[in-house]
Each structure stands twice: as C-alpha cells, then as structure tokens.
Amino acid sequence: MELFIYLFAALFSVLNPIGTVPIFVGLTQHDDKKERSRISLWTAINVFIILIISFFIGEYVLSFFGISIEALRIAGGLIIVSSGFSLLTGKFSKKRGINKKVENEIQNRNDIALTPLAIPMLAGPGSMSLLIAFYQEHHSTMDILWSTLAILAVSIVIFLTLKSAHYLAKILGTSGIVAISRIVGFIVIAIGIQYIISSITTLIKVNM
User: Fold this and answer.
1) pTM of the shown model
2) How many domains in the chain?
3) What pLDDT was estimated at residue 104?
C-alpha cells in the first residue's frame, strides 16, 4: 500500500492534471458537455497506455541503447526539476511547446485526446523516466500489481479532473489554479532532486 501511495503521489505531482485545466478549458471551449466527457475519457485512456508501456517496456529500450539506470534517473531528475521550475515560475504552458500557431491548428482538429493532451501535456519525459527507473527497483509480482493500480488511479483522477475542468476553472479561478500549480511545482522539484541525489550516491558507492 505504501508503494501505491508513493507512486501515485509522484505521478500526480509530475503529471499535474490541475495545471492542465486552463489549457483543456481553452481547447474545448466550443465543445458541448458530451464531447468534453469523451475527450476527457480518451485522454485518460491514452495516458494510462503510455505510462503502462513506459513502465513495462522501458527497461528493454534502455538495454537496446545501452543506457544505464543511473544515467536515466539523472536525466529524468533534470527533466522533472525543469518541469517543477516551470510550474513554480508560472511558465509551465510555455515549456510545453504550445505556441499560438500550434494552438490554432489544434482548435481545428476533431480529436485532441492524444496530442497535445496525453502527450506532451500530461505523459511527458519526466513521468516516463520516473516509471522506467521505478520498475528497475520494484519488479516483484506484488510491486507490479500495486504500481499498475497506482497508474490506473492517476488515470482515473485525470479523467475526473478534465471532466470537471470547466467547473474547476470557475471555482478556483486563475489565481487558484496558479497557486496549486506552484505548490505542486515545489513538490516536483523535490522529487527530481531526490532522483539525482539517489543516482549520484549509487554511482559513488559502485566506484568506491
């Protein structure tokens, strides 16, 4: 159960569905309630699939490219810290690469559930590297079961958050969403730094 709580909290902080609320509202402002629910559901399903693939197959990708787990953890930690700083300084959406031209193109598409919502807004390099590194340390049957349940739980929370996005935007307002994003950003930075410290400590121990 502790493993479930830890992974759920880590994924929720890195994915930051609350921070996606303003973007979701902007991209679906002309859609009806049924269409918004459909997009929310498929976004959550896409995120779940991406995270599960990262969790189970990521190890083989590392082996193929000859990347050590310590290198991945340090790279992932840097990405996570970068995302955290973006949240903390209020520049998160800019870091996602959604400029005005791309946003206009997105508005003209029928389905935005896969891109940009699932990738890269929610399931980005930070969450993928986190899961790949996590699998290296927790790959027993029970660990895999709890980890899968944590990924499923995060996906359900994403669905509920996006489904309620327009209501949350009204209740929290811009300042409320910014405040939550910055609190989450601080936690994300701490997670990233912990990953880097753990990796460096492991490397030092191995080489001593």
Assistant:
1) 0.75
2) 1
3) 53
